[in-house]
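Quick one, tokens below. Sequence please?
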């Protein structure tokens, strides 16, 4: 990667001055002391070292008291240039903070706020809240295949999937991928491949059974359903274990927990009412099996859907590959943001490019240390499928 540094000749001697790729006026008066620590700078005029980068040098030259010693021999012109640069930086930062706050206030995952919806939700219990969705046009593969259905030359529309259900079903409508038709009896079903497998396997509860399905077809569909359940259960377990590795509350020292309990700031499990759609975070695990559960489910699904809309909008706007969300690091990031709560400030480009990148490199090197010890003994190295 580009280091973000420039080397400039410092004079007739031919020596070089190391500086960052920046147009900040401070670089007229400073140079980097250490290429590995971009906050460590040296004043060209007096030779003093400072921590804090360009901002501290400008305070030094402008004779602004408080953080650094003043350069007593700086000219009036240099002082004014540095003071002006500091004031402009403060105004720019203040404007950015204001814009970020305004942007943050546009986020609302608690519903529309219509009181009629709240009253009706309370009366009906399980009524889904109305929501307004933004439709974003994204160029994408339809994910559909057309296959010849027989000698007549007509085609059967199916999804790009290896699910065994497609031996027995076809899509009824290319615009509704959950609407399918049984090839054997011609019935339409909502719920996609899963419902067709229940239909063929004669599993009661959700759909009518296909009475003429063979034993072999029934077994194939039952096996596919069981495997899907096991796969889903394993995924849920792995996701839960992954989520439990996230901790943004410190070391988890028991003394901290006790102190929080004593101060009364520990979060308590609670049930939800309609007004919670305007209020605090929802804990989906605290759901009593009553009418209250219906309200909780509606609120939880509504809030989760809105969160997912914001994530999707960022994916589309940034051109991020869709498979990125299956990455464990993405799941960890989402969990850490949820644990932190409202007001999360994303890292700056500088933080991503320098301190956070260095920390991550150091972390990965730390993870490799046990393997490196093994290499010395066995002569093996780390291999990865790309």
């Amino acid at each position: 990667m580009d280091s973000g540094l420039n080397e400039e000749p410092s004079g007739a001697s031919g020596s070089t001055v190391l500086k960052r790729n920046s147009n900040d006026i401070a670089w007229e008066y400073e140079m980097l002391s250490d290429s590995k620590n971009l906050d460590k700078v040296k004043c060209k005029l007096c030779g003093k070292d400072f921590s804090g980068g360009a901002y501290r040098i400008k305070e030094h030259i402008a004779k602004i008291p408080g953080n650094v010693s003043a350069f007593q021999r700086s000219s009036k012109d240099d002082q004014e240039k540095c003071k002006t640069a500091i004031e402009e930086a403060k105004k720019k930062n203040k404007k950015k903070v204001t814009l970020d706050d305004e942007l943050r206030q546009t986020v609302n995952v608690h519903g529309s706020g219509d009181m009629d919806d709240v009253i009706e939700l309370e009366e009906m219990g399980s009524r889904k809240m109305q929501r307004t969705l933004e439709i974003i046009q994204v160029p994408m593969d339809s994910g559909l295949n057309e296959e010849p259905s027989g000698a007549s030359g007509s085609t059967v529309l199916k999804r790009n999937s290896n699910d065994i259900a497609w031996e027995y079903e076809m899509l009824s409508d290319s615009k509704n991928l959950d609407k399918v038709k049984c090839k054997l009896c011609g019935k339409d079903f909502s719920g996609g491949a899963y419902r067709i497998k229940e239909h063929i396997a004669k599993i009661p509860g959700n759909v009518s059974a296909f009475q003429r399905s063979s034993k072999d077809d029934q077994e194939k569909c039952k096996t596919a359903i069981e495997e899907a359940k096991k796969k889903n259960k394993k995924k849920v377990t792995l996701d839960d274990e992954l989520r439990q590795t996230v901790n943004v509350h410190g070391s988890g020292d028991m003394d901290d927990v006790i102190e929080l309990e004593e101060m009364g700031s520990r979060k308590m499990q609670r049930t939800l009412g309609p007004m919670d759609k305007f209020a605090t975070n929802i804990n989906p695990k605290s759901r009593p099996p009553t009418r209250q559960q219906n309200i909780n489910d509606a609120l939880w699904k509504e809030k989760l859907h809105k969160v997912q809309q914001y994530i999707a909008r960022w994916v589309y706007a940034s051109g991020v590959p869709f498979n990125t969300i299956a990455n464990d690091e993405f799941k960890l990031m989402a969990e850490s943001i949820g644990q932190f709560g409202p007001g999360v400030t994303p890292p700056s480009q500088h933080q991503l490019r320098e301190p956070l990148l260095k920390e991550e490199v150091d972390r990965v090197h730390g993870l490799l240390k046990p393997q490196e010890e093994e290499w010395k003994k066995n002569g093996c190295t780390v291999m990865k499928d790309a």
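The first strand starts at residue 5 and ends at 9. The two ends are 21 Å apart (CA to CA).
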